[in-house]
Amino acid sequence: MNFLPLSWTSDYDNKTYYSVIYNPCGYIHIELVSDTINSTNEALFQAYDRPRVFFNDRSQYSSGDGSDSQGPFVLSRATARMDDIKKFYSKDLNFSTIYNKEYDDGSEVIVVAFAEPT
After folding, report:
1. pTM to 2 decimal places
2. Cys-Cys link to 5, which of 26, 45, 72, 117 (CB 3.0-4.6 A)?
């Protein structure tokens, strides 16, 4: 199975993270992320100049029972209609924008999350 190993730095905590992206079938791509890697495999990971996952204070959830923390589920999609996507998630689904950045090459990323409970 082909895979793409990347290393990148988070905008949130400035830590280096490691991703392995693979395509098990069809149009599905799965990305596994860790902040640690076996040093003997570190040379396999190529540097990527942008964050792959966007963390914030809401990214870590605890079950409250002393077990390991749970991380966020991330769904990514590419679009040429970013304004429509922003409207759909903010107006139609009432999601909050927690990160929005436009890069020098014109590409843009937006991260949304369920609105905070009131």
Report:
1. 0.64
2. 45
